[in-house]
Amino acid sequence: MSTLAINGGNRTFAENFQLAPYPNTSAETARQLSELYLNSRAWSYYGEHELKFSQDFAAMQHAAHGVFMANGTVTLECALLALGIGPGDEVIVPAYTWMASASAILYTGATPVFVDCEEDSFCISPKAFEDAISGKTRAVMPVHLFGSMSDLERICTIADKHGIFVVEDAAHAHGGFWQGKGLGSFGQAGSFSFQQSKIMCSGEGGICLTSDQQLFDRMSQLKHIGNAQAAERRHDPVEKNLLCRNYRATEFQALILRGQLQNLAAETRQREQSADYLRERLQNVPGLKIQAKGRLATQQSYYIFALALQPERLKPGVDRDQVIAALQAEGVPEVFAGWAAPAYAHKLWNISADRYRVHSCEVAERLSQKQVVLFALMWLMASRPEQEQLCGAIEKVMWEYAQ
Ligand SMILES: *Cc1c(COP(=O)(O)O)cnc(C)c1O
Prior knowledge:
The chain has 403 residues and is of the alpha/beta class. 35% of the residues lie in helices and 14% in strands. The protein has helices at 27-39, 48-60, 74-82, 100-107, 126-131, 152-162, 213-223, 251-282, 320-329, 362-371, 384-401, and strands at residues 65-69, 90-94, 111-115, 137-140, 165-169, 177-178, 181-182, 189-193, 206-210, 288-290, 297-299, 305-309, 335-336, 357-358, 372-375. The strands form 3 sheets. The chain has an 8-stranded mixed sheet, sandwiched between helices. A 4-stranded antiparallel sheet has the order 10-12-15-13. Helix 3 packs across helix 7 (213-223). The longest helix is centred in the middle third of the chain and has 32 residues, at 251-282. The two termini are 14 Å apart. The relative contact order is 0.17. Bound molecules: pyridoxal-5'-phosphate. The site of pyridoxal-5'-phosphate has 14 residues, from helix 4. Pyridoxal-5'-phosphate (PLP) binds at residues 71-73, 97-98, 100-101, 143, 169, 171-172, 193, 195, 206.
C-alpha cells in the first residue's frame, strides 16, 4: 500500500491538475448576445428568447407552461403563493436541502415542517412525509437532491390521498425523467434554478413549470407586477389583493439558456454514464456507499456525484474532514462536504424556532453532518482517465482509513 500524500507520500494527481471548467461556452451564443446588446433594446419582458426558452424547457419536462424568473427561490415562492398558501399553513420539506427550499415557504408566511430523508437516495422519506401531515398541511416540496430523485410515485399517492399539493424543487435535476415523465411535471408546479453552479446556468435565473392554466396565469402575474405572460393579454384583470412582484429575468439569460438547452440531452447522458461508471468502479471500496439512483428513475440528471462514508467502517479518529483533507492532499479538486448540516442548522439560517417545525431528522443530520462527500459536476464531465485517477485516489485513501 502506498503512503498517503497527506502523510508525505506521492500525490495521485500532478501539482497543476485542473478539471475543465463548466459550463462550456459557445462562440455562437457570444455572437447572439452581442447582437442582442448592440441591435436591440428589448432586453427584458416580452422578448422572443424568454418566450421560446420557457416553452421549450416546459415541453422538454412534459409540462404545458413555464414561467421564467429571476432565480430558483422566487419560483418556489410564486408557486406556493399561486396555490394560495400563506400564514397558518404548513408545507413539508426535507431537512437535507439547500435553505432556499425552506426560505421560499417562510416568504409566503407559511410554516416549513422539516422531515427526514431516505438513507439511500438522500431524498425526502415518503413515510416521514406522511407521518408529518397535520390538519394545516397544504403542500409538500420534494427536492431531487444532487440529481437523485425523490420517490414521486409514493409522494404523489400520499399527497393525493390527503388532498395536499406537490411542488417539486428540481433545482438539481434539469433534464431528469421519472418513469419516462419529466421532473417538474408531477405535482401542481415544479421549479428549477439557473444559478451559477447549477446544471444549466445563466448566472441567475429560474423557471416554474405547471400544466394548470389558472396557476400559470397567477404565477405569470405574480412575477410581472400583475401583467399576464402573453403581451396581448398584458392587462388582464388581476385578482383582488394578489400582491404581485417584479421577479423578472432578462433576455440575455434566456438566450444563454437556449444555447445550453441544445446540448443538455447529450450532456445528461454523459453525466449519467459517468456516474454509472464511478458507482461500478467504487462499489467494493470499503467505508463508503454511493448515493442511490432514484427508485424508478428513467434518466437521472446528475448534478453532483455524492457518496456517504460509513462511520462504523472508519478507523478510530478518522472522520469526514480527515477523508476530505486526504483526498485534497492527493490533488483531488472539487471535493467538499456540501452543506454540512440540515437546512435548519445551517450557519445562515437565522430563523427563530417558533417559525418552523422539525420532525425527527436523524438520517438527514447524520448524512449531512458526518457522512456525505460530494464531487462537483465537473467530475461527471471529466474524461474516463481522469475519473479513473479519481477512483485511484479514493481507493488509496479509503484502504488506509477504513477497517
Ligand atoms: C440552488 C437551489 C435553489 C434556489 O436557487 P437560486 O436560483 O439560487 O435561488 C433551491 N433549491 C435547491 C435545492 C437549490 O440547490
